[in-house]
Amino acid sequence: MTENPGPKKPKSPRAHVGLGERRSAARLAAVQALYQMDLTGKGLDAIITEFERHWMGKEIEEDQYKPADSTLFRLIVQGVLDRQKRIDPAIDELLAAGWPLKRIESVMRAILRAGAWELMMAPDVPVKVVISEYVDIARAFFEKEETSMVNAVLDRLAREVRQGELPEKGGA
Prior knowledge:
Blueprint (H helix, E strand, L loop, with lengths): L18 H22 L3 H11 L4 E2 L2 E2 L5 H25 L11 H16 L5 H15 L2 H18 L11
Antiparallel strand pairs: 1-2
């Protein structure tokens, strides 16, 4: 006699996930990959392979990870690594005195780097979308104070690198 394995899970959550959700999942996966690279020292190819094979769109310890836009995931991770010498100083200039990026917690650092890359290198993505997406990611890991910091840093960076896309502060 065979045991009943219980209710069946949907075979592919991909059919139920729209492009916007796949892009959001790619941003979250990119932040997690950058964090893991920072912590473990794993290289780009190893981390991309690991995330694409074992995390994105998979169920792990009863948590279902949404399918992610692999192209966007790769672009963000590769882009941050390729332009880190330009991204880090840009973020450093926007942080409070005495708090360089290297002193910021590593998940926060990954969020700021990924958001900065999109603002600097993906002009096709509206500024408000970039800021909103990374503030949402920050909310998953941090309290209001840190989330507000992500919003402030990315807003200030957007005003420098994408002039005219946001309304003037204090203006109509």
